[in-house]
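Quick entry between incubations.
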Amino acid sequence: MKVKPINLFGHIILLVGGLVMIYPLIFMVLASTFTKQEYAATVLGPFPIAIKPTFANFRIIVGAAKDHLVQIYFFNSLFRTLYSVVFASLTAFLGGFVFARLRFRGKDGLFLFMLATAMIPGVVALIPTYIEYARWPYAGGNNIFMGGKGILDSWWVYMIGGPALNIMGAFLVKQSMEKVPIELDEAAKIDGASTFRLIFQILLPLQLPILAFIAITTAQATWNDWGTPFFFTSSDKLQTLPAAITRISSIATSAGVPDYPLMITLGLGITFPMLLIFFFFQRFFVQGLANAGLKG
Amino acid sequence: MVLKRCVTVLIAALLVFAVTACGSGKSNDGKAEQSASTDPSSSSAASATESGDSSSAPANKTVVINANAADNVAGSGEVADLIQDLEKKIKEDANSVDEAGKQRLAIAKAANKVMADLGYELKQEDWGWSEPLVQKQTAALVAKQTPDIITGETQSPGFAAQGLLEPFPDWLDQFVRENVVEGAWKPMEYQGKIYGVAFQPGVSVLFWNKDLFRKSGLDPDKGPATWSEWLEMSKKINEAGKGKFYGSIVYSGPNNGGYLRAGIYPLMNGGGFVNENNEPIFNDEKNMAAFQFLRDLNQYAPKGAMANGSEAAYWDPVNKNQVGIWAEGPWMISMCATNKLECGMGPLPLPDGGKAANITIGAAFASVPVYAKNKEGGFKFIEAMLSDGVQQMIADTGVRAPVTKKIAEGKFKTEHPELYQFYEALQGNVRGLPTFSKENTKVWQVYGDAMVRTLMTNEDIKKIWDDAQTKVEAMVK
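Done. Structure below.
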């Protein structure tokens, strides 16, 4: 079969692009086989090969898996991710339904206002959020607003804080749902379907691709989020894997002797579950975005 | 209609559930919160001011410390429990904790013992270091939710100037002035009052690579004593290296790490960041010679390493036997051993007519915030960390210099002559980074940009710093 030059050119560009994308991962795998001493003493090339390769860093991960605290971090990461995925998908779906199907005064203005909040960088909201949690009424020793620590350093930071309303998700669901003919709703109502049944039995199955997309991106963001545990909690028992790694990095660098291979290996360790999720569910990305009308 | 009702009921239920579930008035672990006022003028502060007498049992036993990794065992929780866990871990497998971890354990044990003897229980919260720590501390101070001790580096003088830290009570102030080397507390002195002290701070001293000195035909036992000697030696090393190794690096990147290291040279020449009224003096005549010196030195450094935004670009060639001369804090001694570098050490070279000066680096200043619930306990912790037992432990670990005159001038002087050089450098003209009266971050950004332009371009140095001065004067006006 003859390959058209334009296709060959396209494949070369994709191959080079793919290599650029995957290069950091290759570097991480190679660097994780170094000892701290060899890493510090070697002038690293683009593909560093250890003279005395070691799997000690990987053994630390395996060994750490038996550590009680690491098990807590893992459980916290997993539970928080699952909770966020369920809650964010639910709020995105219901929010999307409200803005796509219901009619009320100020709907467009309200939607734009909510969408605008998604444009504020998280770091700008850090101090207001901290104060909000610290002043949470009747929590953590507070009277109406003061006196205690509010919901800081408690599980409520994860339950209330993260997925209150996934407005970007709601936007995607709204876009996707607007493509479904309104006649479908009317037909269902004529056949006697209640609003609840209409939402969850008729419209929900049609939104599964975009909800899968929302679930995957939420899972990725929550799993990798180190900021929420770091800033709003202090207890060991509330930490997640990325936050725990941040602490390890802080200790490693403060003494002036960074153990980069160990930090890189730990980074690999927490990346792996997300790689698997992406690998198995990547088709939902395309499908979901296509349904939302965002694909070119 | 049905949907509307459902949604209303759901939201109401969620709110009731949330408020009742976390509204128990207890902390997450079920223990009752400490009953203390957040009022800065609370009675605990007042009693702390009165006396350092430790004979009576404390009213509030728990002291919450915002841990610094160099001083304490890692992790968050009761320090006694953390010590016990770590000791158990070491007992099961001696290699499970590295030397630095064992040294931190020894220091934490000594501090915990002093506090336990006084009737206090230490509780530790690990808030990390560097930028994330600054953000978390800022948020905590704004929310008036702080531990009893916070540790910080470049941000701490700023907190003191903003009135967010409690001045040391008279008994502690007097103890520190009489017994602790100036460099450990002088950067935290504001309007005649001390607001913090570092228990094992660093300053920069000169290091040189003896192996590269030999390869360049230089005497490996003698480092440069003046700026002109430094430039001369750097040139020789660079020429011998032929691109394989380089003359010198003074890290001068546009960040705190750069300001702390490169800021020393203007001070030596009689200049500095600010005048006695804390006003920026970036374009001071005396600074220009120092900036010219750094530009000259940069030609003998690995390309782009001195002005790089990331410290890694500086550490990498130093650790890999590629740099002849550099200036660094006390941790460099152990790094030389780890990286098998044969290092020489000496005081920082001086300019003609200049005087020794330094800036603290890696200094974790411990302070009591005005919103601390147990201020008395906080000050007792500072006293404990400056006690003979803890300072002797810091001296014995041989990683950093102690700060109390009694311990440093004792056996330590002869047992750790390399580290004693750092103690010596902590005496005299030692500063911290200033906090500008307005737009502090932006002013530092201007300084960093000007430094990068100084090193990376051939523009007129005076003009670069005149421009910077004009900008910052408008900012702080």
